[in-house]
Amino acid sequence: MTQYLEFEKPLAEIEGKAEELRALARANEEMDVADEAAALDAKAAQLLQDLYKDLTPWRKCQVARHPERPHCKDYIEALFTEYTPLAGDRNFADDLAVMGGLARFNDQPVVVIGHEKGSDTKSRIERNFGMARPEGYRKAIRLMEMAGRFKLPVITLVDTAGAYPGKGAEERGQSEAIARSTEMCLKIGVPLISVIIGEGGSGGAVAFASANRVAMLEHSIYSVISPEGCASILWKDAEKMREAAEALRLTAQDLNKLGVNDKIIPEPLGGAHRDAKAAIASVSSAIQEMLDELKDMDSAALIKDRRQKFLDIGSKGLAA
Prior knowledge:
With 320 residues, the protein is α/β, with parallel strands linked by helices. The chain is built from 15 helices and eight strands. The longest helix has 20 residues.
């Protein structure tokens, strides 16, 4: 069953009625409900188009967090062949919130790294809802170092509410691990491409997304803090999250104007969760385009390009 978001309730009613009619027809073969069901389908399609025509930032947050949205594991299984996962930070433990390893993308050897939130209760707990601990970032550093040594492009898939803020994580150097991961992103001499596939939260996302090219799915978000967290700090009221989402300019469209992301990847109507195959295919095309843009640059040019990208952030929006 499709899980509907709060603003999709009118759509849920119409699609639910259409399904009820079809269920009645299956139970009673003499009933002919084709015309009524088709009319409801047409009404639902128009409503879906109207709902997603101009989503508010808060509604985009809801879509980005949809539990049925394709996650890192789905992209790796669909887009990469010969994927060989590599585990552990060689220091403390393996962090299941971060997955990564060697793979081939369109037959090109690469290193792929990403946040994995999990798809059901058990896997979400195991993956800590995609919130990485220090060992997750240190695992990513290890993989990026290896990519640099063997001249392999790095592709990162970002989907996290932020780094895990627990006591143990802080004791093991969470902020230092994030800073080291960000530093590694900036200094490796190979193409580094990042795709925000859902949420890009705070330094936990930046540690994977300090890349030559950053793409965002159409309804993904990328921000220094969640709208709820921002509202709690500024207004002492988490219920002000809608106002916070507007103020944060966290949508792919706003961030593209500021030069934070380089490409917006279109999603199927209704969000990536309504047609995961189409969304994944769009991401594949975008990754290949970005790899092609960088393939003729040497190590020094790649590092210079990456650093200049971040120095230029904001100037694009100011000039406009």
